[in-house]
Amino acid sequence: YLVVDMPPGTGDEAISVAQLMKKADGIVLVTTPQDVALMDCRKTVTFSAQVEIPIIGLIENMSGFICPHCGEITEIFKSGGGVATAKNMNIQFLGKIPIEPKIVDSGDSGMPIVIDAPESESAKAFNTIVDKIIKTVE
User: In terms of C-beta density within 10 A (0-12 exposed, 13-18 middle, 19 or more buried), how is residue 109 classed?
Assistant: First the structure.
């Protein structure tokens, strides 16, 4: 798999990648729960239809903060925007990735969280999402 991390929106970068990747299996949209991010996400869904690249699904990133002391989840941003957008746009919702300090620690050590902290909620979320993506494209 080739993963291309793109800035939000449908500007020159997205157009260039779409032209180069005409036979791509699809796009995985990653959004945060804020309204402005969800608006960009909806624009990207429309853009993908125009360039005829299918949408594999949508991920809601930064979906709640997991306290490292008690494990309680605090909704820092609005909750559920990714689920609602996926439903309204008729695309698959792949999952939510919470914010937790273990992600920062893993990134700083150069290790993916799924290897560095496989028991973490974020690692579990990533694994579930990857399983859904694989089932969709194969």
Answer: exposed
Question: Any bridge partners for residue 55, and if so which?
Answer: 27
Give the model's pLDDT for residue 16. 87
Give Cα 80 to chain centroid, integer Å: 13
What gap in Å lies between CA 65 and CA 52, rounded to an integer?
A: 36
pLDDT at site 21: 84
pTM for this model (two decimals): 0.90
Q: For the purposes of burial, counting CB atoms within 10 Å of the CB of 12, is it exposed (0-12), middle (13-18) or buried (19 or more)?
A: exposed
Question: Does domain 12-137 bear CATH number 3.40.50.300?
Answer: yes
Ranges of residues in the chain whose predicted pLDDT is under 50? none
Please give the distance of CA 41 from its chain centroid, rounded to a whole number.
10
Q: Give the Cα separation of 48 and 8 in Å (integer).
A: 13
Asked if residues 45 and 15 have their Cβ atoms less than 8 Å apart, the reply is no
